[in-house]
Write a structure and sequence with these properties.
This protein has about 250 residues and is α+β, with helices and mostly antiparallel strands. It is built from three helices and ten strands, in the order E-E-E-E-E-E-E-E-E-E-H-H-H. Among the domains are: about 35-110, Immunoglobulin-like (Sandwich); about 150-195, Carbohydrate-binding module superfamily 5/12 (Seminal Fluid Protein  PDC-109 (Domain B)), CATH 2.10.10; about 205-250.
């Protein structure tokens, strides 16, 4: 048996203290209630180099505050422990010298609050500057070659015409839209032909009209010379008026 001494305040002497053998470890107590608000207090009544703290915070990395038996924090002191975060329910503290006291563990808050309401939509941003002109695209592929027109001259009832053959008939040019032979001559609405171009006004008719106009114009000028003096008859305005009158009389203008 180990012999220790204890101080007797009555006799003011150190008396021998008999200490028996260490007994067997007692059964583990029942688990405490869940920490409220993520807070757990651990008490180490006897000085130990290692504190093994089994908590119920449900987080592996709680915030740890160590307090000595003098109710002062060990933060910033040489004896602040090395902390090992073992699991979501176990944290181990290792000290340089045997230490007794308390450990306060917090999990960083209580249960998650309800989701806040959605904020109002922000203002529309300013329009961005216009981007630079893009690079020119690649050249497209060449198109399919078109079908040419084959000129066959005057239309002939006995000639075999194929699609896109062109002929002249009755003052107009026509193009075949399907193969034909011994059919009716080309006309508007024909199932075999489409009109390409129509005949214009005959040139001789215009020339004849001009000749008639010239004869009447000369005769009218002579009449003006006979009525007025020569120097007044040559005035430009008078001539134009007479020409306009002539046109109304003959239905030209």
């Amino acid at each position: 048996m180990s012999v220790l001494k204890q101080y007797n305040t009555n006799t003011q002497t150190w008396d021998p203290l008999l200490i028996g053998k260490e007994g067997a470890q007692g059964i583990q107590g029942i688990s405490g209630d869940t920490a409220i608000g993520g807070f757990y207090i651990f008490q180490q009544p006897t000085p130990q180099l290692t504190w093994e703290i089994v908590h119920n915070l449900g987080t592996r990395y709680p915030i740890v505050e160590v307090i000595g038996t003098d109710n002062k924090s060990l933060t910033g002191t040489a004896n602040f422990p090395e902390i090992e975060f073992v699991s979501g329910s176990t944290t181990v503290l290792r000290f340089n010298t045997p230490t007794a006291g308390y450990a306060a563990l917090t999990s960083g808050g209580g249960s998650q609050g309800v989701q806040g309401i959605q904020g109002i939509q922000g203002l529309q941003g300013l329009q961005g500057i216009q981007g630079g002109q893009g690079i020119q695209g690649s050249q497209g592929t060449q198109g399919i070659q078109g079908v040419g027109i084959v000129w066959r001259g005057d239309w002939n009832v006995s000639t075999l015409y194929k699609i896109n053959d062109a002929v002249y008939y009755n003052g107009s040019s026509w193009v075949a839209k399907q193969q034909n032979q011994s059919q009716d001559p080309p006309y508007d609405g024909s199932p075999y032909w489409d009109r390409m171009a129509s005949q214009g006004i005959q040139g001789n008719f215009v020339f004849k009209v001009f000749k008639v106009l010239k004869v009447h114009l000369v005769d009218r000028v002579h009449k003006v010379h006979r009525v007025h003096k020569v120097h007044k008859a040559l005035k430009v305005n008078k001539v134009f008026k007479d020409l306009a009158l002539f046109g109304r009389e003959f239905g030209v203008v």
